[in-house]
Amino acid sequence: MQGPTVPTISWPVAAEAEPAAEVSALVLAHAPMGIAVIDADGLYRGVNPAHCALYGYGADELLGQPFTAIVPAEHRAAALARHHDFLAGGAPMGGEFEVLHRDGRRFDVLMRSVAVTGADGRPMRLAYVQDITQRLQAERAVRAQQQVLQSALDALRDGEALLRDMAASIPGAMFRLQHLDGGRWRFTYVSPGIQALCGLTPEQLCADVRLLRQCIERDDRPAHDAVIRMAVQAGCAFEQEYRIRTADGTPKWVHARAVPDRGAQPVSVWTGMLQDVSQRKHMEAVLRSSEERYRTLFETVAQGVVYQDAQGRITSANPAAQRILGRTLAQMQVQHSDDPGWQAQREDGSPLPADQHPAIVALRTGTPVTEVVMGVPVPGRGLVWLLVSATPVRRHGVVEEVYASFEDITERVLLSRELHRQASTDDLTGVANRRSLMQCLALEFDRVKRSAGSHRCAVLAVDLDLFKLVNDNHGHAAGDAVLQQVAALMRRLTRQHDLVARSGGEEFMLLLPEAGADDALALAERLRAGLRAQPLQHQGLQLSVTVSVGVSAILPGDASVDVVLARADGALYAAKAAGRDRVCLAPLPG
């Protein structure tokens, strides 16, 4: 939930947004339902035009303001408390609420909320709001069923005895309700069906009308009373739905409708019916929850989600997938998973064959593929690393599509590589450190031992002669510059698969796989002669530096790497003892 905005809509768009974000913003701009983003402090951070129109405000009047501006004053504290409780993982925040229009008019809305995470990591609430009148479409079926019953009520209102006989045989409860002087109410008739509906007998309700109101859930009572008051004032029919709790604690949804007796003025009698609609309400809630959960997850989840059909063609991609991959849905729909344009690669840098793409593997095998690390080139970003999982979708036992979910782990991969580089590299010279040297030496030692001598590896021990004088005469900065330039020369003289390592203060070692003693001696001599002939430079100074080099090799009969190092060091000491600025080959053992 966390940039520039699309014209005519105040909606946050990520700074790196591509055309897909513009499409998403346009969809929000034309969505028929009100949509708003509310931050952890209860302030509007995004509103679409439908939300503004619903309450009669402009976007600039809402953004940055508390969302409680549209809540009646007496409910604001409770609304803000529910908001904070919801973001803290408490009770769901949704349902029917009384709200304020800018002109002061009160009306009811149906609101659903989804928790999302902002760019700053704080929780935010994504609210979907609809005018309650939009429920009429969902209620048409109920009204059609009730029309026949209501026609019977109208025709039989004067036939009290026949009405009672019919009332006893139909589901729900029929009633006559009288409004008395002083604002009091009483039932003059309630059919037997009331007992199955709420657990009260007709006699109990006729004796005390308040018993039915006490069954109504406390949160629904204000709306219930408001509908009744409006009907009395207008002398018209009333219709509403509310929740009750029966005498044994069972929760139910009730649909109530009554029409006035227009024979008397002012109107004081209503005839109507109460009907249990719990099953319909449950099904509506399940469907609505399922649809909203899928839509919200698909549209707002931070992970990319891509659907592909049985042929591997991309059919759908959520906004996060389009942002991460730097491609619009239309661009992705023309690219198959095995399209060479993806140029996917494994973590080690090798190409990832098309038939090994997680989605294709899941389609082919019918089994999920989880947490595959792969890199793909993204326009404007270069190589992006993804952690991908793919799940096949079966219908009637046949895999018809697959959805792949993925997250951008580029920073994690780069950080891991940087930590590995720091752990294996000498900070001053950029060559391998002693830890990395010992790991590589152990690998080469094992290769020589396993090959029984067919694999060769030479070792050079290099020491800068009288290096202490450089530090003493010119300072440690000059000494550091000498070490860096000597290391750079070694890297220029060696092959790509050779290893240059700093093993001590002014000491270096070189591992030369697939090199014999003659090759190693030649390289050591080039290094020695090169330094002898070309003084090193530091801040205008010319520093003459020489090296002594001991040359040895890993032998099949060596007992350990320590034996190899000791032999190379012995050759180095021999070169120093002979006057320095020399290369000495270690004699063969025995």
Layout: helices, strands, pairs:
Blueprint: H1 19-30, E1 34-38, E2 44-47, H2 49-55, H3 59-62, H4 76-87, E3 95-100, E4 106-117, E5 123-131, H5 136-156, H6 160-167, E6 173-179, E7 185-190, H7 193-198, H8 202-207, H9 210-215, H10 221-234, E8 238-245, E9 251-260, E10 269-276, H11 278-300, E11 304-309, E12 314-317, H12 319-325, H13 329-333, H14 358-365, E13 369-378, E14 382-395, E15 398-408, H15 410-424, H16 434-451, E16 457-464, H17 467-474, H18 476-493, E17 499-502, E18 507-513, H19 517-533, E19 536-538, E20 541-543, E21 547-553, H20 561-577, E22 583-585
Parallel strand pairs: 21-22
Antiparallel strand pairs: 1-2, 1-5, 3-4, 4-5, 6-7, 6-10, 8-9, 9-10, 11-12, 11-15, 13-14, 14-15, 16-18, 16-21, 17-18, 19-20
Features:
590 residues, alpha+beta, 5-stranded antiparallel β-sheet, 22 strands, 26% strand, disordered N terminus
Structure description:
With 590 residues, this protein is of the alpha+beta class. 39% of the residues lie in helices and 26% in strands. The chain is built from 20 helices and 22 strands. The strands form five sheets. The chain has a five-stranded antiparallel beta sheet with strand order 2-1-5-4-3. The protein has a five-stranded antiparallel beta sheet with strand order 7-6-10-9-8. Helix 18 (476-493) packs across helix 19 (517-533). The chain is elongated and about 130 Å long.
